[in-house]
Structure formats: structure tokens, C-alpha cells
Design goal:
Radius of gyration: 14 Å
Strand content: 35-45%
Protein name: Nuclear transport factor 2 family protein
CATH topology: Nuclear Transport Factor 2, Chain: A
CATH class: Alpha Beta
Pfam family, one: SnoaL_2
Distance between the termini: 44 Å
Helix content: 25-40%
Number of domains: 1
Length: 123
Amino acid sequence: MSTEPDYDHLLRSNLQRVFNERDPAARATALDELYVAEPTMFEPDAVVHGRAEISRIAGQLLERFGPDFAFTPIGSAVGHHGLAHLAWQAGPNNGPVAVTGADVAEIQDGRIARLWVLLNPPT
């Protein structure tokens, strides 16, 4: 009998250690730990292949939105049978929420293989 990975820990770590990490070396280390060797990330306007490209996109996002911008999980991630979901919000620290969405991940051997970044429509 196989055991399920800790989906909440995995997706929260992804949010904090990849998408909130401003240090490229620390982000690369996190990607090596959290993602399979050749992951794919699906964004609303792009498909990104590989850890290095995911790191580049995360770094660009943080640069574009400024030093106080951060992603914050909403609730806990849920998942089973290799599929997980974590809702989040993002914006400046102590500021208004700029965007909300969710990460949906396909997990293989305890690591993220494919990640879909879903954005909620603006309210």
C-alpha cells in the first residue's frame, strides 16, 4: 500500500521557497528538492518547461511586483492520488490583495511534475 505525500507541505513549500524566494540560488535549491527533473508549469498565457525556466518566471514575477510582494496560502492544500490543490492570494505585505488564484499540481514520487497556475478573475 502506498502512502500519500504531504500535499500541504509540498505546495506551501513551493509557494514560499520558489515563488516568494528572491535569492536565485535558494530558489534553485528548492526547485531541485520540490520538483521532478523535467517539470512543466502551465500559466494562463504560457507553458514553461524545466526547473530553470520556472525559476526565471518566479524571479521575474517578484521583480515586477516589488520587494514587498508575496504569495500567501489560503487554507490548507488538499489532494489525493497524485493531484493537489492550494488556494492563494498575493499582494504587497500589509497591503491590498492584488490577485487570487490556486496552484493545482500533479505529484509524482513526492515531487511536483506538472503545475497549473490558475488565476481568479478580478473582482
